[in-house]
Fold these 4 entries.
Entry 1:
Amino acid sequence: MRKLFGMFALLAIFSIPTLAQETPVFEAGGGYQYRSFDMPGGPRLNMNGWQVSGDANITRWLGITADFDGTYKTFGGGDHTVYSYMIGPQIYPVGHHMITPYVNVLFGGAHFGLSNCGGGGCNDSENKFAWGGGGGVDLTVSKHFAIRLAQIEYERTRFFDAGSEGIPFQDNFKIGVGVLIRLGNR
């Protein structure tokens, strides 16, 4: 029994390198984005939209990612839009494998727009600094394709500042899914 256990242990140890995947040089993806937007003085807006990203991998565990998204909601007699555009480091704690978890910290900007208000119409928009962070899990389907099973992020914006009134920051949450195309290998 000991010999059988030893053989299985050796087999398991020597098969670990076969779990490794080559690290892609570049990944680009897109998909669905849900945003829970913290509207000051009102309920959270449940917004739906899109998300695209690009990631240049520097090493097998570190990349630089650029993330862009847009979400939309008609609420309170107007069309609300929120776009964000951020960049930052993305870390793959265990490298690229069949299941690839990652975490990131992103900095950039966000745009809030309000239009088509009831009656006379309105156009109001703001661009502000934004930052966020989160993580997700990708499932490798083939050498060049992966499915983003989940991406969960926190995002902080500060729209609607009214000077001395002390409007707080918006603490937003985003959830996304999508597909990735992977190019080149390290």
Entry 2:
Amino acid sequence: MSQDPICPACKCEYPYPSGLLWICPDCGHEWNPAQEASTVESSGLIVKDSNGNLLQDGDTIMTTKDLPVKGFSKSIKVGTKITNIKLVEGDHNIDCKIKDFGSMSIKSEFVKKV
């Protein structure tokens, strides 16, 4: 008898397989145990976007709301595409470069993976 994985989002003990992914019936979180294990081993840092998708260094993301920037008269608009991100520890856990703004740190809760 094989042991089924536990949901990494809510710790539910009853996820079910769907192809390569596992799905949690309680919170709806979907994950690939093999991919998640390799990500945790490589960086030790788990960062998820606003939809619960796991982010990795080098991913492309898109903003989900207008983000005001201190010291600038304009904000980063909804739908701004950001490439080649770097994940870091802390409150603003994504480091990136944005055209017309330069280097920035952004919270993962305001972006989605493309």
Entry 3:
Amino acid sequence: MSYLNSQRRRRQRGLTMVELSVVLVIAALLIAAVFTGLRGNQRRAELQHNATLITQIASALRAQFGRTGQYANTTLALAVQSRAIPEELRIGTGTTAQNGYGGTLALAPATCAVVNDCLDLTWPRVPQAQCMDLVISTQSVARRIQVNAVDVKALDGTLNLANLATNCEAVGAPAVIYSIGR
């Protein structure tokens, strides 16, 4: 009788170990699925936040400097001080700013149709995985868009998706240049 009891206990232990292994595998799969979902949500939130910032900046630049014909005199320092660049992007109390990806912004007068009728806003260090989505979602704010110094939206034209895809994939973290103007 004791032999049968010990056999049952061994079988029970074996089944318990198998069951435990199955439970652990299922738990690991669930954790992986949750983690993947959270990363996707985080990526979408980061993308949306940067797209919103670009749209706000473009609008503020046109309102503050375009209406008064001051693009030629506009610098990043002036845009930061005038709050055309949101306070949250300002680096400390200085006159520089960085985007949501940690890249330092650049702003310079540019020529779209006539001299100094635009400002080039450089949005650097855009992750490859977000580059296309960011440009597509912000294409309406700019007269011209370049990725890695290549036009993906010609002056007052439409977005060239083939050029966009190629240039977003060309380097690890491309810079997007928005020509914002009247």
Entry 4:
Amino acid sequence: MNAEASAEQIRKAYERAMKAEIPFSIFTEDLFATGNDIDNRAAVIAKRGDELALVGMALRERKKLVDKILDGIKLHK
């Protein structure tokens, strides 16, 4: 499922996923400035969760839980 969201909506989904303690991946603005996985990981580790400039996230879980985490986010058309 692909969705489009504002920065605020991504932040809310991130917080919901953290609270639900499910595994997920994040994409931050910093990741697009690095050229490799080692620098990507270092860019994320260098900041606290509330300091991350989130631009996207990926998760895979039961539909009911994903729907709850992504509440209010529109699907791509």
